[in-house]
Design brief:
With about 240 residues, this protein is an alpha/beta fold. It contains 9 helices and 6 strands; from the N terminus they run ααβαβαβαβααβααβ. It has a single domain, classed as Rossmann fold, CATH 3.40.50. β3, α5 and β4 form a beta-alpha-beta unit.
């Protein structure tokens, strides 16, 4: 899994974190899976956005955050364990839900990750992903201004590749709308090359050209920026 340095971790908080109001649609779709369970593993917790969100949204749930990057853990200001999808520092059968937000494309060995997830999950537990997949990117407005960033999707898995690679079955798949920014002007102020896997595929010239297009649009367009990421719920094969 990717380990962000201190500069990238700071940029991530500026560019990638979304308000809980903007994420309210995620609260609704996650409630059936998280509101009544005991322990949720926030795997690849980053700067702790969803660790904090789950604590507010589902106060009866214990959230354990695991993050490989020491810089991200420090930037979060939250208690976090060092670890990644291939080496989770938790006992067997200790969590009810594994949550992974915009993480799965950073996992180099899906089979090893799948084995670890099955190890830490209790019987009947599920893996819940919030992610962008190679074949499902039409809901991301970023590509309107940075069309060259599409090439970075070659390194992203498909939904089928994730499920089969980890040895799980897809129980649910649907796009979820979120308010990524209050306006294009806000988006233009916070966009950072170093904070986004897609943007890091761009040359300096491509990034500046895209940012200029974004600023031009922000001067005339109002209203919130709405993007769609996929919710994927994975069950162990056979539901065991």
């Amino acid at each position: 899994m990717t380990r962000y340095d201190a500069v990238e971790a700071t940029a991530y908080r500026v560019a990638r974190e979304i308000s809980l109001t903007g994420l309210s649609s995620w609260r609704e779709v996650l409630a059936p899976y998280l509101s009544t369970v005991g322990t949720v593993l926030d795997l690849g917790a980053g700067t702790g956005l969803f660790t904090r969100a789950f604590g507010e949204w589902f106060p009866g749930v214990t959230v354990v955050a695991v993050e490989p990057s020491s810089s991200m853990r420090e930037a979060s200001g939250l208690p976090m364990l060092a670890g990644d999808a291939g080496s989770i520092p938790l006992p067997d059968a200790s969590v009810d839900v594994v949550w992974m937000s915009t993480v799965i494309h950073h996992v180099p060995d899906l089979a090893a990750a799948g084995a670890e997830l099955r190890r830490v999950l209790r019987p009947g537990g599920v893996v819940v992903l919030r992610s962008l997949f190679r074949e499902r990117h039409q809901g991301i407005g970023l590509f309107r201004f940075f069309p060259e960033a599409v090439r970075a999707l070659s390194g992203f898995p498909t939904v089928a590749e994730v499920a089969s690679g980890m040895g799980f079955e897809v129980e649910r798949l649907e796009p979820v709308a979120q308010v990524t920014a209050s306006s294009l002007a806000e988006k233009a102020e916070t966009v950072r090359w170093e904070a986004d896997t897609l943007l890091r595929s761009l040359s300096a010239e491509e990034f500046e050209r895209g940012r200029a297009l974004l600023l031009e649009a922000a001067a005339v367009e109002t209203g919130p920026v709405i993007d769609h990421l996929d919710l994927v719920v994975l069950n162990t094969v056979g539901g065991v």
